[in-house]
TrEMBL record:
It comes from Flavobacterium johnsoniae (Cytophaga johnsonae). SUPFAM superfamilies: CBD9-like. It comes from the Bacteria. The lineage of its organism: Bacteria, Pseudomonadati, Bacteroidota, Flavobacteriia, Flavobacteriales. InterPro entries: Carb-bd_dom_fam9, DUF5916. GO terms for biological process: carbohydrate catabolic process. GO terms for molecular function: carbohydrate binding; hydrolase activity, hydrolyzing O-glycosyl compounds. Residues 34-188 form the Carbohydrate-binding domain. Residues 227-803 form the DUF5916 domain. This is Carbohydrate family 9 binding domain-like.
C-alpha cells in the first residue's frame, strides 16, 4: 500500500507537471472594490488556482504548505479581476521595501502572466509587490522582459496575520485577445518570497527547456466579451526655468499630447505630437579615446516602450533620431559660436501588433527639423549660418512571422531620407530564429544589406549564422560572422566593426537545482577568432573561461580570465583605411562579488586587471558599490570607480606630406597613462507607493597624459617620433545632479518635478588635483541649472464613454 501511495505521489510530481493546468473564470455583475480585502460575495465561489511549484532555485519541487498561494479570477464586461492570497507562516519576515514603479526593490512579489491568444508567443505580465508597488512588462522568449511597456490598471496589496493579499483589476484595454465568443487564454501565476529568493509558478515551468512563455496553463470560462476601443489620450504640460553663467534666466512653457489607438484587437498606433524629453535621464559621458563614438542608452519612453519588434536584428539605434547634429566643416580661423545640442524632433509615430496567425508588423516613422550652426571668423568677426542637419525622415518597417509557437523569420528595413543634397541611407535585413519543437536546439542568423546614397554610393553586407543546444545542464553553441568593408547601418543603426570574418563557440555547464553550497552555478568556456577580410591577418583571438554562482545565502560571486595568445592587428585604431597597429599578447582577469541585497547593508566589488606582453604596459581597476537600506522607504547607493592604464598606446593625430603625394599618411600615436575616477550616488525616499523623491549624482574625471610620441609604421609597429610637438593631452571632467519628485496621482497620470544642474569641461592641460577637477565645476560660472514641472494626464476613451452613459 505504501508503495502505491509513493508511486502515485511520484507520478503526480514528476509527470503531472507536464500537463497544462486549467482555471475557470467566474462571470460577475456586482462591483468589485479594489481594496485588497477580497470580501465581496463573488470571490467566495470562484475556482481556486493553488499547488504552486518551485521555479528556482529548486526547480520542480512543490511549494511548502506554510508558503501556499491561492488565486481566483472574476470577470465582467469591462475587466478581469484577480484575487490572490499569499500565505506565510512567518508574516513578520515579509520584505516590503517601497520603490518606484517597475522597480520592486527588496519586496515579495505576486504576478499574473496573460496571453490572450494562447499561442505561447508573448505574455503581458502584471506584478504587485507586498509594498503595493506595481510593475508590468511584455515578455517574449526571444527578447526577455520589456519593462518599458506600461499599462493602466488598478491594484491593492494588504499585509495580514496570515501573509498578504492582492486584489487586481485589469481592464480589457490593457490586454490583447481575439473576438471569439469563448475565450481560452494562456495564463500563469508567479510568486517570489524575497527573503529566501525562492520563486514559484502555478503551472510548472521546466528550466531544462529553453522557453518560458510556452509553459503556461490556461484560463477558461470567459465568454461573450468584446475587445474594447483602445483609445488613450495623454495630454501634457510642462514648464522649464533655465539659468547659467553668461545667459539670461528664461522660462519655457511646453504642451503636447501622446496618443495610443488600437486599430483592432492586435494593432496599436502610438503618436507623439510636439514631444518633450526635457526630463529624461542625463547621459553618462566619458573621455572617449577610441576610434568609435560612445553609445548611449535610450531614456525616452516613446523609443523604449513596446519596441521589441524594432530591435530584431539589432538594426535600430533610436538615439540617431533627435541626436547630436553633425559637426560643420570649418575654414582656417573659424570657430563655432552657436550650435544646438540635439536636433529637435517634430513628431513621431509607430504602429505595432501581431495577427492571430502570428504575423507581427511594426512601422516607426519620425521627422526631425532642419538645424543650423553659427560660425564666426576669428579675425574679421564675420559670421555665417550653415545647415548641419537637414529636414530628415526616419522610417523602420518590420514583418515578423512566428510559427510553431517558438520560431520566427523577420524582414526588416530601415530608411533615412534627408532633404536636399545630403546623403540618404537604406538597410534591409532578413533574420531567423528557429527552434526544434522540444526547444532543445536553435538555429539563428541574419543577412543585412546596406546602401548609402551620397557623392560616392557604397553598399555592404553583414551575415551571421549560429547553432546552439538550448536545453539541459550541458549546452553549447558555435557560429560565424562575415562583414564587408562598406557595410554601414549607422544612419539609423549602430555598428563599429567591418571588413572581417570570424568563428566562435561556447561550451557551458549549469546546475538546474540547488546543492548544499549553491543555489545557482554556471561555468562557460568561450573561443573567438577574427580575421581581416582583405589581408587575412588576425584581428582578434581569445580564449575565455568564467564562472558565475550564487550561494545558498544568496551572495553572488563571479570570476573570469581571457587569454589573447597571439599578436593581433587592430585595423580600427589608426583610423586610416588599410593601416593597422600590432597589439601584443595579453591576459585579462576579473572578479565580482555582490552580497545579498536582502540585508540592510550590501556591497558590490568588481576588480579587474590586464597584463600585456610589453614592459610596463598594464591596466587595473576596481568598482566598489556599497548600499544601505535604512528602512522600507529610504535607500542610498554609492559607487566608486577607478581605472588606470599604464603605457597605453593610442592614436592622437594624422597628416599628409604636402610635398610628396606618394608618401603614406603619417599616423601619430602616443604612449600615455590614462586614469579615470567616477563617483555616483543614487538615493530614493518613498513617501508611499505613489510618491517618491529621487536623487542621482555623478562626478567623472578622466585624463590621458602623453609621455612620448610614436609614429605608426607600415608593418604595424610603433617607433619614437620626436618631430611631433603638439599638445594632445586629454583632460575631461563632468558633473551631473538630478533631484526629482514623482507622484502618480491617478492611474496613468503623473506629476514630475525636477531640479538639475550639470557642467563639463575638456582641456589639454592636466592638473593632477582631484579637488580642482570637482570644484571647478561646482560654481555659478560653470553650472547650468534647470528647474521643471511636468504634468501628464491619462484619459481612457472607454472610461469617459461609460461616465457619459451613466449620467445620461
Amino acid at each position: 500500500m505504501k508503495k502505491l501511495v509513493f508511486l502515485s505521489l511520484f507520478l503526480s510530481v514528476f509527470f503531472g507537471y507536464s500537463q497544462k493546468k486549467a482555471l475557470q473564470a467566474k462571470s460577475i455583475s456586482q462591483n468589485i472594490s479594489i481594496d485588497g480585502k477580497l470580501d465581496e460575495n463573488a470571490w467566495e465561489n470562484a475556482a481556486i488556482a493553488s499547488d504552486f511549484i518551485t521555479l528556482e532555485p529548486d526547480n520542480g519541487k512543490p511549494a511548502p504548505e506554510g508558503k501556499k498561494t491561492e488565486v481566483k479570477i472574476l470577470y465582467d464586461n469591462d475587466a478581469i479581476y484577480i484575487g490572490a492570497k499569499m500565505f506565510d507562516d512567518e508574516p513578520d519576515k515579509i520584505l516590503k521595501e517601497i520603490s518606484q514603479r517597475d522597480n520592486f526593490g527588496t519586496a515579495d512579489l505576486f504576478g499574473i502572466f496573460i496571453n490572450g491568444f494562447n499561442d505561447g508567443q508573448q505574455d503581458f505580465m502584471f506584478y504587485v509587490s507586498a509594498a503595493d508597488v506595481q510593475g508590468d512588462c511584455i515578455m517574449t522568449d526571444a527578447t526577455g522582459e520589456d519593462y518599458s511597456w506600461d499599462a493602466v490598471w488598478i491594484s491593492k496589496a494588504v499585509l495580514n496575520e496570515n501573509g498578504w493579499t492582492v486584489e487586481i483589476k485589469i481592464p480589457y484595454s490593457a490586454l490583447r485577445f481575439s473576438q471569439e465568443n469563448k475565450q481560452i487564454w494562456g495564463i500563469n501565476f508567479f510568486r517570489e518570497i524575497k527573503r529566501t529568493r525562492y520563486k514559484y509558478t502555478w503551472n510548472f515551468v521546466d528550466r531544462k527547456i529553453g522557453t518560458f512563455t510556452q509553459q503556461a496553463g490556461t484560463l477558461e470560462g470567459i465568454e461573450n466579451i468584446k475587445p474594447p476601443t483602445r483609445l488613450f489620450l495623454m495630454p501634457y504640460a510642462s514648464y522649464y526655468l533655465n539659468a547659467g553663467e553668461g545667459q539670461k534666466t528664461y522660462g519655457t512653457v511646453k504642451g503636447g499630447m501622446d496618443i495610443k489607438y488600437g486599430i483592432n484587437d492586435a494593432f496599436t498606433v502610438d503618436a507623439i505630437l510636439i514631444p518633450d524629453f526635457g526630463q529624461t535621464k542625463y547621459d553618462d559621458q566619458i573621455l572617449n579615446l577610441g576610434p568609435f563614438e560612445q553609445q548611449f542608452n535610450e531614456n525616452r519612453a516613446f523609443f523604449t516602450e513596446g519596441t521589441d519588434l524594432f530591435n530584431k536584428g539589432k538594426m535600430f539605434y533610436s538615439r540617431r533620431i533627435g541626436g547630436r547634429p553633425s559637426e560643420p566643416d570649418l575654414n582656417d580661423n573659424e570657430k563655432i559660436i552657436e550650435q544646438v545640442q540635439n536636433v529637435n524632433l517634430i513628431n513621431a509615430l509607430k504602429l505595432s501588433g501581431r495577427t492571430k496567425n502570428g504575423l507581427g508588423v511594426g512601422i516607426l516613422n519620425a521627422v526631425t527639423e532642419k538645424t543650423f550652426a553659427t560660425i564666426q571668423d576669428t579675425i574679421t568677426g564675420d559670421t555665417r549660418r550653415v545647415v548641419v542637419e537637414p529636414l530628415t525622415n526616419y522610417n523602420v518597417l518590420v514583418l515578423d512571422q512566428r510559427f510553431r509557437k517558438n520560431s520566427s523569420v523577420t524582414f526588416i528595413n530601415t530608411n533615412v531620407t534627408r532633404n536636399g543634397h545630403f546623403r540618404d541611407a537604406n538597410v534591409t535585413g532578413l533574420v531567423w530564429d528557429l527552434n526544434t519543437k522540444a526547444n532543445t536546439y536553435n538555429l539563428s542568423g541574419n543577412v543585412k544589406y546596406s546602401t548609402i546614397n551620397a557623392e560616392e554610393d557604397k553598399r555592404g553586407m553583414y551575415a551571421t549564422l549560429s547553432f546552439a543546444e538550448t536545453a539541459g545542464k550541458y549546452r553549447y553553441s558555435f557560429g560565424s560572422d562575415f562583414v564587408t568593408k562598406d557595410f554601414n547601418p549607422n544612419d539609423l543603426g549602430i555598428n563599429f566593426y567591418t571588413n572581417y570574418y570570424n568563428f566562435f563557440n561556447n561550451v557551458n555547464y549549469r546546475i538546474l537545482n540547488p546543492t548544499k553550497l549553491f543555489n545557482s552555478f554556471r561555468i562557460n568556456l568561450n573561443n573567438y577568432i577574427e580575421f581581416n577580410k582583405d589581408s587575412g591577418k588576425t584581428q582578434d583571438a581569445s580564449i575565455n573561461a568564467n564562472v558565475n554562482l550564487t550561494t545558498v545565502k544568496n551572495n553572488y560571486y563571479g570570476m573570469g580570465i581571457t587569454v589573447y595568445p597571439v599578436e593581433i592587428c587592430d585595423y580600427y585604431e589608426p583610423r586610416t583605411d588599410g593601416r593597422y597597429v600590432t597589439i601584443p599578447r595579453k591576459i585579462d582577469a576579473w572578479a565580482s562579488v555582490s552580497t545579498n541585497y536582502n540585508h540592510k547593508f550590501a556591497i558590490d566589488i568588481n576588480p579587474s586587471i590586464s597584463v600585456v606582453d610589453e614592459p610596463g604596459r598594464a591596466a587595473f581597476g576596481v568598482d566598489i558599490g556599497p548600499r544601505y537600506r535604512f528602512n522600507d522607504k529610504l535607500l542610498l547607493t554609492y559607487t566608486f570607480s577607478f581605472l588606470k592604464r599604464n603605457n597605453n598606446k593610442g592614436y592622437i593625430d594624422s597628416y599628409d606630406d604636402d610635398d610628396n603625394e606618394n608618401t603614406p599618411e603619417t599616423i601619430v600615436f602616443a604612449n600615455r597613462d590614462v586614469i579615470t575616477y567616477a563617483n555616483t550616488l543614487s538615493g530614493k525616499y518613498a513617501i508611499n507607493s505613489m510618491m517618491t523623491l529621487n536623487l542621482a549624482v555623478r562626478q567623472y574625471w578622466s585624463s590621458a597624459e602623453n609621455k612620448n610620441i610614436l609614429k605608426l609604421d607600415q608593418d604595424g609597429t610603433l617607433d619614437p617620433y620626436s618631430q611631433y610637438t603638439e599638445n594632445k593631452n586629454s583632460n575631461f571632467y563632468s558633473w551631473n545632479a538630478d533631484l526629482s519628485y514623482s507622484w502618480w496621482f491617478a492611474p496613468g497620470s503623473q506629476l514630475s518635478v525636477l531640479y538639475r544642474n550639470n557642467a563639463s569641461n575638456f582641456e589639454r592641460v592636466i592638473y593632477k588635483d582631484f579637488k580642482r577637477s570637482v570644484t571647478n565645476l561646482l560654481n555659478n560660472d560653470a553650472l547650468k541649472h534647470v528647474f521643471s514641472i511636468s504634468v501628464k494626464y491619462f484619459i481612457d476613451y472607454n472610461a469617459v464613454k461609460n461616465k457619459i452613459r451613466k449620467r445620461a
